Amino acid sequence: MGKRAFVFPGQGAQYIGMGKDFYEQILVSRKMFDLASEAAGLDVAALCFEENERINITEYTQIAMLAMEVAVLKAVEEKGYMPDVTAGLSLGEYGALVAAGAMGEEDAFRVVRKRGIYMQEAVPKGGAMTAVLGLGADIIEKVCEETDGIVSIANYNCPGQIVITGQAEAVASAAQTLAEAGTKRCIPLNVSGPFHSSMLKEAGERLGRVLEETEIHDIHIPYLANVTADYVMDKGQVKPLLMQQIASPVRWQQSVEKMIADGVDSFVEIGPGKTLSGFIRKINRNIKVLNIEKVEDLEKLCNVIN
Question: Which of 90, 152, 248, 255 is catalytic?
Answer without folding.
Answer: 90
